[in-house]
Amino acid sequence: MTLTAGPGADRTAPEPARSALLTTTHHPPAPARGPSPEPASPVAPARPAGPTGRTPAGIEHPTHPATLPATERPGGPWAIWSPCTPGECLPARARTGRWRLARRTVALLAVLAAATVLVPLAALLGGRVLGPVLRALHRGVLAAAGVRLVVRGGPLAPADGRGALVVADHTSWIDVPALGALGPLTMLAKQEVRDWPLIGPLAARTGTLFVHREGLSGLPGTVAATADALRSGVLVGVFPEATTWCGAAGGDYRRAPFQAAIDAGAPVRPVTVALTTRDGRPTTAAAFVGEQTLGDTVGRVLRLPGLVCEVTVGALIEPGAGDRRALAARARDRVRHGGAGGGTG
């Protein structure tokens, strides 16, 4: 099925659940390796259309920095790392659209203000009320920012009522409301999000699982908490790259979330999120990378004439008897190369 945010948006039946508004796992870049090239053009060149008849999310980009082997990365092979920086991966900042920026800023703040009132009230009434409210608020965030949501495949939840690990590549702050609009989801997010003004309290209120990403000592507890949530029938959303890439290239998938899926016997739901201009050309303009602040990346999006966020819900991947390395690799391949389909694969 195909859904569009705004008028005529998703009218699927309400489901009990929790979610998070605008959580993200943005991480600072590696130390600079020399002068950055000129800013990229606003639109990255598209590769030939994939089997689904559209441009794949993993597009090529003429100025994307080299991806270092794991053994050569700053901090070693286990450190959270991305080569993406604003100078190398983003188009030049738009010089027009000031009125558009002002209008959309007011609309976005209105949605967030409504969320501070509606989310606590809906939480008191239980998941059957909270789930639809959160989905509506996420769609409202996208509409206020000038982002049109198109969904292919779905729903996210397995037909038999089990929980599932929902995985996607992480490019932009847009990824979270895009997934939340399909919800209901409980997101995994970095601990720092809890301290963000307005967004942090909302994320905590809606059941976000906060993770200390730099400390390995807390990893078993995170895996156990994620597995418990999956066993209880919750959809847990995670970006396994653990940080943001610009969308022209992607990072390796961390394996810990997939261990939680194996421990819980829960399937993995791969989801592909592709951002394009209104005429269908892939763009990195909405990416949230390097030393960017949240305000900078949101402002860039609000200035744009418009974006289309296409979300493709892939077929379920059963954990089976394989190990977490194999499961992570299968999920990564489905996210970047798979097609639509809400069944089991």
Commentary on this structure:
With 345 residues, this protein is of the alpha/beta class. The protein contains nine helices and eight strands. α2 (98-125) packs antiparallel against α3 (127-144), α6 packs across α7 and α7 crosses α9. It is globular and about 55 Å long. The relative contact order is 0.21. The model is unreliable at 1-25 and 27-62 (pLDDT under 50).
What is the topological layout?
Layout: E1 2-4, H1 86-89, H2 98-125, H3 127-144, E2 147-152, E3 164-167, H4 175-180, E4 186-190, H5 199-205, E5 209-211, H6 219-231, E6 235-238, H7 256-264, E7 268-277, H8 294-303, E8 307-313, H9 324-337
Parallel strand pairs: 2-8, 3-6, 3-7, 4-5, 4-6
Antiparallel strand pairs: 1-2, 7-8
By DSSP (H or I, 4+ residues per run), the number of helices equals 9
Portion in strands: 5-15%
Average pLDDT works out at: 77
Radius of gyration: 19 Å
Number of strands: 8
Poorly predicted spans: 1-25, 27-62
Q: How would you describe the shape?
A: globular
> What distance lies between the first and last C-alpha atoms, to the nearest angstrom?
18 Å
Helix content class: 25-40%
- Output the structural class: alpha/beta
- What spatial order of strands do you see in the largest sheet? 1-2-8-7-3-6-4-5
Q: Could you state the order of secondary-structure elements as H and E?
A: EHHHEEHEHEHEHEHEH
Largest sheet: 8 strands, mixed
